[in-house]
Amino acid sequence: MNDFVFILVLIVVGALLGGGTNLVAIRMLFRPYRAWHIGKWRVPFTPGLIPKRREEIAVKLGALVEDHLITPEGMQVRLKDGILFSEVEKRLQQGVSELLVEDVTLDDWLSEHLQKKDQLKQLRASVELGIQTTVKEWASDYKHRPLEEFIPVEWRFQAEKYVPLIANTITSKGAEYLGSEEGLKQLEQLMVGYLRSKGSMSSMFGRVATRFSLAAVISRELVLFLQKKETTALIEELIRNELADALKKPPSEFIEEDRMDYYIDKITTAVIGKTPLISEWNQPLKAWSGRYEELLTKTIIPQVMATASLILSRYLETIMKRLGIKQMVEREINAFPLRRLEEILLMIASKELKMIAVLGGLIGGLVGLVQGLLVVFVL
Predict the structure, then answer these.
(1) What number of CA atoms fall less than 13 Å from residue 350's CA on the CB side?
(2) CA-based diameter of the chain, in Å?
(3) How many angstroms separate the CA atoms of 69 and 27, rounded?
(4) Which among 370, 378, 364, 377 is positioned nearest to 13, based on CA atoms?
(5) Average pLDDT, integer, range 37-56
(6) Please, which pLDDT band fits residue 117 given cuts at 50, 70 and 90?
(7) What is the average pLDDT across 151-172?
(8) Distance of CA 104 to CAs 32, 121, 125, 173, 174, Å?
(9) How confident is the model at residue 127 (pLDDT cuts 50, 70, 90)?
(10) What is the dihedral of CA 179, 182, 187, 189, to 10 degrees?
(11) CA distance 118 to 7
(12) 19, 360 Cβ separation under 8 angstroms
């Protein structure tokens, strides 16, 4: 009986020592977090393994992640399957569609989401200033140069192409007006007024001319004159001559110097007023953005994503090197609280660590049994 109790005590002591040793070893992976000192002497095995080797572990993990886990080759494969960009494109299209039905102005939306108050007003002012500066520089460079030096040839061809039409319009509309009752009446009034202004004899002649309807005779002759092809050709030639003379003159002969700024402001206002988005962004989005939805969702966003995919694929290796994944992992591991890291690892491997402690206890108990048997039966 005494031998049995002796062997049992050895088994229990061995199990406690084996299991306890493993538990201490597990704890010494993390504890203590800092080195212990007695005077100037550092206590052995302090700090724990992971705190002591923390920087080395961070370097090794950073190299592991950069060289074997998150690699350019792996990212290329991920990009080629198209899932990432398809999902991003889908989310962008959904976000744009939701944005375009908002009952807020674009400026208000930017102010709310990006804290950019009056950003669009500043942009509009910058655009206006840019247009005004450009137009003023252009006017300063060209105001004393003949128009024919800088007006595009296509414009001149277009203007000359309309000369026959203008001449025909002048003759046809002039003949039509002079042949009408209103035109005849106007011509008669002009004749009478002219003759009266020349004295009594001319006034008497005017009354006679009115009675015999001299205005009607002159009107018919003028109509016949305007209906002749020669008249149209003459007017056409006059217009061409005037156009040629005008092209030889500088803009300064058509626009007074003190009126230049006024016209530049008018041009700027007209351009801004006709420019898409700039002329509309002070209105609620849902009032004007609908006509841009298909352009944005079906054309611009897919093109942007396709271009981004191409650029990212081409420069992925360079981008990943610039990101510094290795340094990023090192920095995060070194900054991560040791207590929290211990909790996470123990939580993940709690079952396995318990089994290690139990295994240590079993081995210790087995050693105690062997020792007890040797003592009892051999010694």
Answers:
(1) 6
(2) 171
(3) 29
(4) 364
(5) 82
(6) low
(7) 88
(8) 59, 15, 21, 52, 55
(9) confident
(10) 160
(11) 88
(12) yes
Rg from Cα positions in the chain: 49
What is the pLDDT at residue 196?
66
Quick one: tokens of 183?
């035109």
The mean per-residue pLDDT over the stretch 155-168 comes to 89
Residues 193-201: what's their mean pLDDT?
Answer: 59
Q: Does pLDDT of 189 surpass 80? A: no
Residue 346 CA: distances (Å) to CA of 32, 44, 340, 341, 343: 16, 24, 10, 9, 5
For the beta carbon of residue 31, count every other beta carbon within 10 angstroms: 19
Tokens of 39: 């005077």
Residue 309 near residue 116, CB atoms below 8 Å: no
CA 329 centroid distance within chain: 31
Residue 238 confidence (pLDDT): 92
Compute the half-sphere exposure of residue 299: CA atoms within 13 Å on the CB side of its CA. Answer: 5
